[in-house]
Design brief:
The structure holds 2 protein chains of 2 kinds.
Chain A (H helix, E strand, L loop, with lengths): L2 H24 L9 H9 L3 E7 L1 E8 L1 H18 L2
Antiparallel strand pairs in A: 1-2
Chain B lengths: L1 H13 L7 H19 L2 H8 L44 H6 L11 H16 L9 H9 L2 H20 L1
The chains are: A alpha+beta, B mainly alpha.
Amino acid sequence: MSLTRELAIGGYLAAALTVVALELLARRTGSRLPTLGRLCESLLRLRIGLRFRAGLRFRAGGLPVGRIAGYAVWCWLGWHLFAR
Amino acid sequence: MVRVLVLALLALVGALFPSFSPAANLYVLVVGGTLAWLALSGRLARRALAGPLPATTPAPVLVEAPLPVEAPVPVEAPMFTPTTPTTPVAAGPGPAAREASSRLSPAAAWWLVPVLLLGVVELTDLALGSTYPHPTLSNLLDPVLDHYPVRAAAYFGWLAAFWWLVRR
């Protein structure tokens, strides 16, 4: 096994361990760090709306970009791992 | 329980198709596309909202559901930001608690650490050719996913996480 391969695997493991560590920290009582689930929920709620001003102000639409991006990324991940 | 069985069945079938086969491509795209369509069309959210809600549920909870085109959006909702309420609600299951939990503290930036770490390693290996000395994550996972039980379990995990995302 080459050194660069070991470094790459170490990098992936470090990223995974960081996720576990952050999740454990987030689950502590009183922690201000959001859990991974809460973070994903917030990102899914991201919307971009169009606001018009014509006498009365109102906001129309509200494109759920967070959901579209989230589902697209997850679809791509599944396709990448199981199909391509 | 029924949902778990359906997801397990989908995973067991999906894992039968080998990578790079047309059937595998079609299957994963149909399953993923269907789940995404269910979520974006708001069918699952409307069903969830149709259930009994506590009397103290704040009005902004209705914003949580993927809205139909003609649905009104609050005038004062901030643009280019997550639509979050300002009233804190006690943590717990249900839409109201999820709504309250959507406001992120600055500490959430710590989650960028694993994202950036993974991104740097992945992009570096990809730029270096995605070879044995420079493996991307999918290169490392492909030999593992060749085994049917592991592939089915991973497929189930992907579907379960997708279902979780759809239900948010």
